[in-house]
Specification:
The protein is α/β, with parallel strands linked by helices and 417 residues long. It folds into 2 domains: 4-32 and 280-401, Beta Barrel (Lyase, Ornithine Decarboxylase, Chain A, domain 1), CATH 2.40.37.10; 34-278, Alanine racemase (TIM Barrel, Alpha-Beta Barrel), CATH 3.20.20. The chain is built from 11 helices and 21 strands. The protein has helices spanning 18-25, 34-46, 65-72, 83-91, 108-116, 127-139, 178-186, 208-226, 252-263, 276-279, 312-316, and strands at residues 4-7, 10-13, 16-17, 29-33, 53-58, 77-80, 99-101, 121-124, 144-151, 173-174, 191-197, 233-237, 269-272, 283-294, 299-303, 322-324, 333-338, 347-354, 362-365, 386-391, 394-399. Strands 4, 14, 15, 16, 17, 18, 19, 20 and 21 form a 9-stranded mixed beta sheet that branches. Helix 3 links the parallel strand 5 (53-58) and strand 6. Helix 5 crosses helix 6.
Length: 417
């Protein structure tokens, strides 16, 4: 469920007409519903009531500080993959002892910052990373709490770019090497073994890969305890999918029930790192039609948003529903919805049946809250769009639209030119 709905043929976000925001802010812009964000968090987190757990929002899915603050106030932790995301999470008010640092390529500077901040745990992804982490912790007089991220070599039915649990992927340590790495870690003075970690992919719509991964982790978890290692946390990552088109992902209650059945009786804390399932359908991208054109076999609707604003269709061939902000247009046509960027891959929908948008009409691209703005760029020297949040009957700009002059910041012409 989300809080974007029509009233008298006009799209609202909670209690605010989307067209009213467009008039005040301009287009394109990302629009988030506070009620949807908080509701989705509580539905997910509440599904695990009765089980020791920590829900750490995946910051890479949407890193706006206002979004993070909204989740922090509800009790969420954070899963981060960079020092910049750590700063954002802390600035938003997420306690350091609820922050997990994931990622296959943590830099020494990132590690130092995380150690100084006393974060909850690092997900370690290689033996060399473990050694660097131990060395830096020693120089800082710190002890780093870690989980070893294990690659279970489990196939997940998702786009290959966001599948992370196969042996051919760069993530984690192979299952066969896990005990060896734990034995090495156990001997390191400035390392504290606290968990096991795994993440098999994103936008998963079937529970079976999760349960299969959890059973693999559970086996190692018990072996480590038999070896005398006090492992307390089991991190299953994120990845639960959402409905973009006709997908039918499991409800968080169904997901939680399946996991509980496996680990019932084990004295562990389950760590979960959802992102898309919380924020995906809580945001849309609003754009305005600029022009229409037709060729002998195609009709194009050109809007003022582009692949630099929302790259998912170009990158993953992903689906985003196309809806009019005002349902005043009659009939439907088949067309491509495209942006102004000089790439054939700059599209949001191809050969899609949609309203016959004309110049000036507002278009809503749905389910754009996750991996939308966070993956935006300045390609073609295009300023990134504004971000807006609605709560009830009020809205606020939570990120100002960039202006062209800001794109030149930091650049200089050398003296020899």
């Amino acid at each position: 469920m989300h809080h974007f709905a029509y009233r008298d043929d006009e799209l609202y976000c909670e209690e605010v007409p989307v067209a009213h925001i467009a008039d005040q802010v301009g287009t394109p812009f990302y629009l988030y519903s506070h009620a949807t964000i908080t509701r989705h968090y509580h539905v997910f987190d509440g599904a695990f009531n009765g089980l020791e757990h920590l829900t750490c929002f995946s910051v890479k899915s949407n890193s706006n500080i206002a979004v993070l603050r909204a989740l922090a106030r509800e009790g969420a932790g954070a899963d981060i993959v960079s020092g910049g995301e750590l700063l954002r999470a802390l600035r938003a008010g997420i306690p350091a002892d609820k922050i997990v640092f994931s990622g296959v390529g943590k830099t020494p500077a990132d590690i130092e910052l995380a150690l100084q901040s006393d974060i909850f745990m690092f997900n370690v992804e290689s033996l060399q990373e473990l050694q660097v982490l131990s060395r830096i912790a020693g120089t800082k007089g710190k002890t780093a709490s870690i989980a070893v991220r294990i690659n279970p070599d489990i196939a997940a039915d998702t786009h290959p770019y966001i599948a992370t649990g196969m042996g051919e992927n760069k993530f984690g340590i192979p299952m066969r090497d896990a005990l060896h790495v734990y034995k090495i870690a156990d001997e390191l003075k400035h390392i504290e073994l606290s968990g096991i970690s795994c993440h098999i992919g994103s936008q998963l719509t079937d529970i079976h890969p999760f349960t299969k991964a959890l059973e693999s982790l559970q086996k190692i978890f018990r072996e480590l305890r038999e070896m005398g290692m006090e492992i307390r946390n089991l991190n299953l990552g994120g990845g639960l999918g959402i409905t973009y088109d006709e997908e039918n992902p499991p409800h968080p209650n169904e997901y939680a029930r399946a996991l509980k059945e496996i680990i019932e009786g084990d004295s562990i804390t389950l760590i979960l790192e959802p992102g898309r399932v919380i924020i995906g359908n809580a945001g849309i991208l609003v754009t305005r039609a600029l022009y229409t054109k037709s060729t002998s076999n195609k009709r194009f609707i050109i809007v003022d948003a582009a692949m630099n604003d929302l790259i998912r269709p170009a990158l993953y061939n992903s689906f985003h529903a196309v809806q009019p902000v005002k349902r005043t247009l009659s009939g439907m046509i088949k067309a491509d919805l495209v942006g102004p960027v000089c790439e054939t891959g700059d599209f949001f929908a191809r050969d899609r049946t949609m309203p016959p948008f004309e110049p000036g009409d507002l278009v809503a691209l749905m389910s754009a809250g996750a991996y939308g703005f966070s993956m935006a760029s300045n390609y073609n020297s295009r300023p990134r769009p504004a971000e807006v949040m609605v709560k009830g009957g009020q809205f606020s700009i939570i990120r100002e639209r960039e202006i062209p002059e800001e794109l030149l910041k930091g650049e200089s012409v050398p003296a020899f030119l």
